[in-house]
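Render CCA tRNA nucleotidyltransferase in 3D.
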Amino acid sequence: MVEVQARAQRELARVAEVTGPLGERFAAAGEELALVGGPVRDAMIRRLQNDIDLTTSARPETTESLLEGWADAVWDMGRDFGTIGCRKGDWTIEITTYRSESYDPSSRKPEVVYGDSLAGDLGRRDFTVNAMAVSLPDGAFVDPFGGLVDLAHRKLRTPGRPEDSFSDDPLRMMRAARFAAQLGFEVDPDVVRAMTEMADRITIVSAERVRDELVKLVCAPYPRAGLTLLVRTGLADRVLPELPALALERDEHHRHKDVYEHTLTVLEQAIELEDRLPGGGPDFVTRFAALLHDAGKPRTRKFQPDGTVTFHHHDVVGAKITRKRMKALRFSNDTIEAVSRLVELHLRFHGYGSGEWTDAAVRRYVRDAGDQVDRLHVLTRADCTTRNRRKADRLRRTYDDLEARIAVLAEQEELESIRPDLDGNRIMELLGIGPGREVGEAYRFLLELRMDRGPLPPEQAEQALRDWWASR
């Protein structure tokens, strides 16, 4: 414990250049100020970033006036929740008035009530590891609920009864799963029990808040831990029902993989491959596509007389299911399209047999993947969970070959911007027609010709177009 505190002191010394003068500024005005929550926790586990959360006795208007002339920039987007933000050098700071908040059973928004003490403010926080503070400017450590002990034991508990905490803000149930995923902590059995009993309360929380927690969970270092907790407590049934639905019933007569466990394995393997992506990781689009790539299987499952099970067209069905769920969670259209396209294309690689890819097939693969081709590479590789080493090695070699083919053709033909060899104006000029449906048909013919045969000299493309037109 002493070692943890010493480590925290070293980390907190980094922010003293900011927190010291700011604490003195508030103290001179007769107000209390304390570093609180995540930054205190993160300092003790060497995760302290450049974002600082502070809590104060000052009301927002007082906080704002005290920051004027000191901060480089000040903003008040969180004023309704008692929060004033600012920037000082490389530090981003949010200062929130002591508060408590609770939900009306019929409301989606918390009612903010200002508090009057640091101890009271800490008591309303979600978990004990987030209910520690360092008062400013004296630097005294405040830990009324044993957060330091829980941090050392890697345990997630609430300051008071979990039922009271989750009644105040049901989103905290999802935060429990998110912190399990971020920190790798064990969630206290009383917390798990309360999450299970109160899972229905999550339905009063706005889709946007649920979405934001889900994104943080999926992008965490250990998402399996958080996701399995959501499934175990029934929260997933309310916020992401497609995930528990993958736990398909099986019996001794029907042979197929455990789709739920397969999905979690694919997610973990996709994470291991994120260094192949241009931006590295964590990459939400790739991870969420891995999580939902088999979402269509429950609806497409068919039992065969020989004991096997089929899931024909689960890729297409899964893409539709993915779009519907992501729209309900208020994701952006671009994110919905990216994830859905990956789900729809995740089987495309297996549709070309044992690797005898024609140039035309490679072109179509890249064209259909579009700007998601790098993510599709990762998802397709991650989707191999067979224990048969020989089969796994064969699939890996085949995909290595495909990526090499793509690289060669991309260099030769600019695959990502494939267009027909003739544009619309030239089509109309050659065929003697005006704008309309027939120009579109001719354009699609030339695009397919480009896919099949690669770039053609203009005279060959023109002759092919004339022959096609004459044969109509």
